[in-house]
Amino acid sequence: MSNHDHAATSATRHILITGASSGIGAALADYFARPGVHLSLWGRNPKRLEKTAEVVRAKGGEASILSLDISNPQAALEAFKEADDALPVDILILSAGMADIRPEGALAESADVALAMSQVNFATPVALATEAANRMAKRRRGRIAMLGSVASFHDLPLATVYSGSKAGIGRFATALHAAMSPYGVLVTLIAPGFIDTPMSQRLEGDQAFLVPVDKAARKIARAIISGKAVLVFPWVFQLTRLLEIILPRPLAHRILRGLEIMQHPSSS
Ligand SMILES: NC(=O)c1ccc[n+]([C@@H]2O[C@H](COP(=O)([O-])OP(=O)(O)OC[C@H]3O[C@@H](n4cnc5c(N)ncnc54)[C@H](OP(=O)(O)O)[C@@H]3O)[C@@H](O)[C@H]2O)c1
């Protein structure tokens, strides 16, 4: 963390990160770790959570882990209330998410995947952000970051549920920013392209402009600290977002139907 970022977050005592056992969430835990800051690290895999906690402790920070499946929004909400009651959360980073594309030969994803992904990528993060925003507004301070994706800007035939769930997060996060910014609570939508994590490593096919995870974490952390409403990166995806608006939809759909990406099964 740079000295400037250090100064900007000097009042920060508690950061809660979902998806802290892997990828972007783990890299953000590493970025924010420092003496005087407690990191609550959520995920499912206890071994990988403990690894992130060790990185935090090695930098002089405090860490606690919670192994919790957030496909149950009610359980996640209760756990968040408990964590915030114990030590008010200054920064909430909602990074946990799942990605799936339709199986080979199928026309769309299965209904089971659609339901699970709607809960993990949309229902639970939205419930947690809403609870956090209400609590933070009373304290007149706080930051909430929600991981969307550039996938939300495009009608992806290969990943209808993923792009739909991320589009929902995108609208929700900017609407919450509009509602909460007068009360000192700044909500940041993070909409990245491909970042080099286990999620993208499962994909086979062109991953244009792949960003190393540490570089992505630095960019994301700065956007959170500054309270920026939306971060889209790398920049090329600002252009594809514009193209999607300009192009007639049937033409855009024809192009998007041509995308060829395969996905290996998850190893966890
Ligand atoms: N990587 C990319 O290219 C990319 C691009 C755009 C957006 N994003 C978004 O960025 C976020 C982080 O992705 P990543 O690349 O860091 O992926 P990742 O390395 O696969 O990490 C995903 C994290 O989410 C957690 N998670 C998944 N399902 C969960 C569940 N049911 N309950 C609790 N935790 C769960 C995982 O926990 P366990 O491993 O412990 O199960 C893991 O910590 C996601 O929301 C993703 O959609 C990623």
Number of helices: 10
Q: What percent of the residues sit in helical stretches (DSSP H or I)?
A: 40-55%
Backbone shape: globular
pLDDT averaged residue by residue:
94
**Architecture (CATH level 2) name:** 3-Layer(aba) Sandwich
Strand content: 15-25%
**CATH class assignment:** Alpha Beta
> What is the makeup of the main sheet?
7 strands, parallel
User: Order of strands in the sheet with the most strands?
Assistant: 3-2-1-4-5-6-10
- State the CATH topology: Rossmann fold
Total domains, how many? 1
The chain-level structural class is alpha/beta
- Strand segment count: 11
Q: Spans with pLDDT under 50 lasting ≥5 residues?
A: none
Order of helices and strands: HEHEHEHEHEHEEHEEHEHHE
Computed over alpha carbons, the radius of gyration is 18 Å
CATH superfamily: NAD(P)-binding Rossmann-like Domain
* Bound molecule kinds, no repeats: NADP nicotinamide-adenine-dinucleotide phosphate
